[in-house]
Structures are given as structure tokens and as C-alpha cells.
From TrEMBL:
Record-level Gene Ontology MF annotations: hydrolase activity
Species per Swiss-Prot/TrEMBL record: Falsiroseomonas selenitidurans
Keywords: Hydrolase, Metal-binding
One Pfam match: FAA_hydrolase
InterPro entries, A to Z: FAH (IPR051121), Fumarylacetoacetase-like_C (IPR011234), Fumarylacetoacetase_C_sf (IPR036663)
Sequence ranges assigned to domain Fumarylacetoacetase-like C-terminal in this UniProt record: 72-275
Family the UniProt entry places it in: Belongs to the FAH family.
Protein name: Fumarylacetoacetate hydrolase family protein
Length: 280
């Protein structure tokens, strides 16, 4: 299934996308959000599958991040060998590099990314996001995939000069990242290590990689992160970006107002956002 969240004149809701039509699960089930649906486990997913009414058409909806109330958004830094290699003198990290993003730093498909007025060094990173569906602590690598609800495209927008202050500073500017347009349940994705990730800036491909090129694979990430903190349904792990980021180009290629950045991953659709300048 393709699950998404959106705005309607009656307020925020969520649903199932089938073709170009959307079943409004907020209207038709007892689950007020996708996070609540995931917390209900198989019962929630079964309820979503059972509803087939065409309540909306996709072009008429303003999309939110698939999980606008995600409990935790966890980023992984330097997790593609190609991205490490493009940074002169860097070695692969000895452990996964973990950081967090706040919910208000992430927008949905079609919404504007804000280039902050505090910096000109606004960079792009296309990533595969992992959506947690089953809670767990100290998750064994062999059990990791059983804890995954699905996958989505993610833009880990980064403000590079502020990232030198702390990773948290550079990764959490208001409305600097994006997720969507939906997430696809794991049963429909198959092997997540065989997907192709492409990022485009104004139509030009700037990143191209296989999701199998991660330094720390998906089971390792779930094991490592769940050793630090319990993972819960609706948590998101953004698994890292490959080479091609703007800060490593000569000259650097920063996002500017009017730019359009896209992340496309096999079977997960295309996340598209335009850039505007922060006012004030």
C-alpha cells in the first residue's frame, strides 16, 4: 500500500493512494493519524486495506509528510562510501553517525523548502527513509526487517556552515527537509537494497546510487539505533546520502530560491519540492 497524509478543507487526514485516487482513512477508520494506525499493528494495516472508496483525487490534495507527527526522525551521516570518498581526507565512520531532526524541519511533497535567511549554504541530500512499524529495543539484525512498516523518499536539507556549529544546528532549520510523497509498505517494496536512488536539481541528475551501497546496512542501523533508544511505530530513520551533494562540487552548488529538488527511488515515487527564501 501507498500511505500518505494530507490537508482537506475539514482538516488534516491520511489515507491510501490507489492510482490517482485516495481513500480517506481519517474519515473511514477509528485511527486519527497514520502513526496511530501503525501503532495498531496488523489490525490497523488490515483496516486500511479493507477500505477502497475513492474519496479524493491526488492532484486536489495538499500533501503533508507521510508521518507529520513522527515520534523520532533519526538521520545517519556519512553512510555511503561514495559520499565519504568525495570528502577529501575522510575515512568511513567506525560506527553509524546518528543525529536527530525535528518534525517542523520537514515538509511534504510539493511544499516549499525554506532557504534560511541566516545562511547561503543550503545543500541537498537525497535519501531512503525507513518507517518503523513494530516497536523494539535491542533489535537483533536478523529480526530487523520485521520491525519495518515501509520506505519513503527523503530530502535531508542541510545548512552547511551551521552544521559546523553542531550537526543538530545544520540539520534542523525550519522547513529545510522533506519526506514523501507517501510511504510504501514493506511487502510491496521487496528487497530494499536493490533500489535505485536519483536526485535531480532543476531537472539535472545530481545523485545516482544503489541503496545497496550503504556502509551500514538497514539491519545494522535498526540494531544500533534501538540499542540507544526504543524504536516505535511511526519513527523514521533517514539512511544517508550518496555522492553528489552541492557542497562538494566546484564551485559549490547551493540551493536558491526558484530551484526545484527531486528525490526519486524505485517504487517509492518522486519527492519534489521547490525552494523559496525565508522572509524577514
Amino acid at each position: 500500500m501507498k500511505l500518505l497524509s494530507f490537508r482537506t478543507p475539514q482538516g488534516a487526514s491520511h489515507g491510501v493512494l490507489r492510482g490517482e485516487t485516495v481513500t480517506d482513512l481519517g474519515r473511514r477508520t477509528r485511527y486519527p493519524t497514520l502513526r496511530a494506525l501503525l501503532e495498531a499493528g496488523e489490525e490497523g494495516l488490515a483496516a486500511a486495506r479493507a477500505e477502497t472508496a475513492a474519496d479524493h483525487t491526488l492532484p486536489d490534495l495538499a500533501l503533508l509528510p507521510p508521518l507529520p507527527d513522527a515520534g523520532k526522525i533519526i538521520g545517519i551521516g556519512l553512510n555511503y562510501r561514495s559520499h565519504v570518498a568525495e570528502q577529501a581526507g575522510r575515512e568511513p565512520p567506525p560506527f553509524p553517525r546518528v543525529f536527530s531532526r525535528w518534525n517542523d524541519s520537514v515538509v511534504g511533497h510539493g511544499e516549499a523548502l525554506l532557504r534560511p535567511k541566516a545562511s547561503l549554504q543550503f545543500d541537498y541530500e537525497g535519501e531512503l527513509a525507513i518507517v518503523i512499524g513494530r516497536p523494539g529495543r535491542h533489535i537483533a539484525k536478523a529480526d530487523a526487517y520485521a520491525h519495518i512498516a515501509g520506505y519513503a523518499c527523503f530530502c535531508d536539507g542541510s545548512v552547511r556552515d551551521w552544521q559546523q556549529h553542531t550537526t543538530t544546528s545544520g540539520k534542523n532549520f525550519f522547513r529545510s527537509g522533506a519526506c514523501g510523497p507517501f510511504f510504501v509498505t514493506a511487502d510491496e517494496v521487496g528487497d530494499p537494497t536493490t533500489l535505485t536512488l536519483r536526485s535531480r536539481l532543476n531537472g539535472e541528475e545530481v545523485q545516482h546510487a544503489s541503496t545497496g551501497d550503504l556502509i551500514y546496512d538497514i539491519p545494522t542501523l535498526l540494531h544500533y539505533v534501538s540499542t540507544i533508544t526504543p524504536l516505535a511505530p511511526g519513527d523514521i530513520i533517514a539512511s544517508g546520502t550518496p555522492e553528489g551533494v552541492g557542497s562538494r562540487r566546484t564551485p559549490p552548488r547551493w540551493l536558491r530560491a526558484g530551484d526545484v529538488f527531486e528525490v526519486e527511488i524505485t517504487g517509492l515515487g518522486t519527492l519534489r519540492n521547490h525552494v523559496i527564501d525565508e522572509e524577514g
